[in-house]
Amino acid sequence: MGTTYSISRIGTFESCRLQFKYAYIDRLPSELETIEAFMGSMVHEALREFYDLVKNRVAKPPEWLLAKYEELWQKNFTDSIKVIKKDLKAEDYFRKGATCLSDYYREYHPFDQAKVVKNEESIFFTLRHNEAQYSFRGILDRLDWNDREKIFEIHDYKTSGSLMTQEEADQDRQLPLYQIALQTRWPEAERAKLIWHFLAFNKQIESSRTEEQLARLRQDLVVRIGEIEACTDYPPNRSALCEWCAYQDICPEWKHPKAMEKLDVNEYRNDPGVVLVSKYAELENKRKDLRGEIAVIEAEELKIEQAAVEFAEKERIRVIDGPDHQLWITIKDEVCAPTRKENEHKWQGLRDYLIRENKFVEVSTINNSMLNARIRNWPKEVSKQIENFLIRRVSKETSLKKKT
Fold first, then answer.
1. What DSSP assignment string belongs to 170-217?
2. Among 115, 112, 21, 106, which residue's Cα sits nearest to residue 65?
3. For the domain bounded by 4-230, which CATH number is listed?
4. β partners of residue 142
5. Which of 295, 297, 323, 322 is CA-nearest to residue 311?
6. How far apart are CA 312 and CA 319, in angstroms?
7. Strand 132-146 to strand 4-5: parallel, antiparallel, or no bridges (unpaired)?
8. Which of 60, 109, 144, 196 could form a disulfide with 114 if both were Cys (CB 3.0 to 4.6 A apart)?
9. Which of 81, 82, 86, 145 is nearest to 113 (CA)?
10. Is the pLDDT assigned to residue 27 strictly greater than 90?
11. What is the pLDDT averaged over residues 371-396?
């Protein structure tokens, strides 16, 4: 039996390949239901029952819609539904859903803007592009026929707390994909309004697609499906979406932290992993403290080195004696290739010249030791030209040696 794709299936692959593997390859059961998803499904179900009546030209009053929503909530709510945000409770989400429905009712009453064709219906279709074809499924929130404008309207309800921008709507894949599916049934669907209802904001956002854009969507989805079917590596991708993932207890990114949440204080402190992290953190803090001390010491050493070089130059000596050690001073005065930071003009000029003379590959990055080694074997005229790009660099080094 072939794979049936959906926008959510493709989206899961794009957001986290390991979650995709757990859900669609390993087919691991998912028992997690978040309060956001539950609230959204109850709002959708209330609107489905409401629009089943609107489809028959019956618009119930707002009290009916809110009572239906409350009935569905009480019937289906369980304590296993997870509230992710710790400062909110299930009751807060219930009230949010009720407000969404109240605002929506006021906005669209008397619900005669268009005629309802489909309402919360699963659709199955085949996506075709060139020789490729794939089975798809989706859930259409609502399909209307706008008799005044002679155009289909594809509606989608959103209860999330984030608002889609117009640019995001114009790039969205889900509703245009449903438009492609509807074209196989109704040629009129070649033109369609794509409408998102962001219920938490009481805002409607519209978009549309040309036939060229729909063709490009078909191509893009076929390419992405090709990536999915060729994939053999499924790494986790840690993101803000992890909190809503049903597989945290087995995900390598979350398995140990989630297991530790279930332990009491003594069990937690004695866990081998916790012990390792605590010890490592302790050593890391010590290392950071020492790094600060070392920086202070190195700064003091640099001052002494500078003073020692000045002393050696003044006294015309190269070795400074001490009780147990000696400081050896080395002063190099050499002509060398400039770094880009030292002199970009000469660095670029030297590079360009070496390229013109087909010598650049031999020194590659114009490493100074490499250049010195090669230049001995090059013609004198080349060496002479190169001198124009070289700079003089004086290095002064100190070396502490123990007396023998």
1. HH--HHHHHHHHHHTT-GGGGSEEEEEEETTTTEEEEE---HHHHHHH
2. 106
3. 3.90.320
4. 119, 155
5. 322
6. 7
7. parallel
8. 144
9. 145
10. yes
11. 78
> How many C-beta neighbours within 10 Å does residue 227 have?
11
CA pair distance 324, 105, nearest whole angstrom:
91
Phi-psi group of 2: left, alpha or beta (phi > 0 → left; psi -120 to 50 → alpha; rest → beta): beta
Contact 77, 89 (CB under 8 A): no
| pLDDT tens column, 320-376 | 988 888 898 988 888 888 888 889 999 999 989 988 888 887 776 556 666 676 777
Contact 128, 169 (CB under 8 A): no
The answer to whether 14 and 225 are in contact (CB under 8 A) is: no
Considering the entire predicted model, what is its pTM? Answer: 0.70
The confidence score (pLDDT) of residue 188 equals: 82
Answer yes or no: are the C-beta atoms of 51 and 115 closer than 8 Å: no
Single-letter amino acid, residue 268: Y
CB 241 within 8 A of CB 15: yes
Structure tokens at 264: 């009491």
- Where are the domains positioned within the chain? 4-230, 279-317, 318-402
Of 5-9, 139-143, 297-301, 328-332, the poorest mean pLDDT is in: 328-332
What pLDDT, in 10s, does the model give residues 261-319? 999 999 999 999 999 999 988 998 999 999 999 999 999 999 999 999 999 999 999 98
SS3 44: helix
Average pLDDT, integer, range 30-42? 92
Distance CA(367)–CA(113), nearest Å, equals 75
Tokens in use for 347?
């660095």
Amino acid at 10: I
Using an 8 Å Cβ cutoff, are 369 and 305 in contact?
Answer: no
Q: Closest Cα partner for 104 from 158, 165, 52, 55?
A: 158
Please report the pLDDT score of residue 336 as a whole number. 84
